[in-house]
Amino acid sequence: MKFVEEIVVEEFLPTVRSMLAADLRERGFTQREVADALGISQSAVSKYAHGEVTTSDRISEDERVRELVERIGDGLATGDMSRVQALIELEVLIRRLEDGDLLAERHRELMPTLREYDASFDVHDPESGARTTEQVRSSVRRGLRILRNTSGFAGLVPNVGSNLVECLPEATDVEDVAGVPGRIFDVRGTATIPSDPEFGVSEHVASVLLSARAAGATVRSAVNVRYDPELVDALREAGYPTVEYEAGRDGAESDEAARPSVTEAVRDADPDAPFVLYQTGGFGIEPITYVLADDAPTVARIIRDLAR
Predict the structure, then answer these.
(1) What digits encode the pLDDT tens for the residues 20-33?
(2) Which of 186, 210, 179 has the alpha carbon at shortest distance from 277?
(3) What is the location of CATH 3.40.225.10 in the chain?
(4) Which residue, among 254, 164, 255, 170, has the nearest Cα to 210 in the 3D structure?
(5) CATH assignment of 135-307?
(6) Residue 164 and residue 166: Cα distance in Å, rounded?
(7) In what residue span(s) does the HTH cro/C1-type domain sit (predicted)?
(8) Dihedral over Cα of 185, 304, 217, 246: its sign
(9) pTM score, two decimals?
């Protein structure tokens, strides 16, 4: 009797770890860095490098495995993907390959009596909350990397700071929105991003994003930059719909309290995404411009093009 999990341990994991080790070494990782990234010993990395570990050609030649190894290698190298997300993505692929696919077929080869049954084993949900959460965090990281590499971005950061956020597909409150803790500030001409994205850390930009979604806008990401009529005109000329809302319309002392104004303005304009949302200020409220789109990298690329 042989369990499919044994095939994962004996064939799939050695093969994928060997492929990942080779991929990371090609990207310039040292043996220690590869070991840290994969959570294995340096001696294990050495064995993979010298072909001392038995691997499966069937698994290594599978296009889905090759594509995922390349994606994980790139994500680990750039920092866009955490080890947690890498683990989740591999778990998802394993479960898919176990469900009537490559690993299931290999299981049947080792256990011929299984061929008498047309059964599948759905032991993992590819759309799990953990996976979706890590995907959103990864998306924000990619967007932040674009902004960090945009030379003119620091000059677009308002006095209150900027934040790049993205929400879960079914977001209902700020706890479902990932952003930068402490916001992004201009420090001597450099956009400073204090730490890794987290959920529930952006009251300001998250509230505007959620308000726009409440109006029916199909957007999941937003960033705030300083307001300037010329910036808004440039975005409009680039083809992005622009929507103005009234900040502090009801005498509010903070922009967060203007969420009903955001919802009303977006609902009336019904803009296609991506679009621009802005307010020209009020008593004690700094004027701000927001760019909203489907995901964080798209938002960041719009800002990059604007800053050129």
Answers:
(1) 999 999 999 999 99
(2) 210
(3) 135-307
(4) 170
(5) 3.40.225.10
(6) 7
(7) 20-48
(8) positive
(9) 0.77
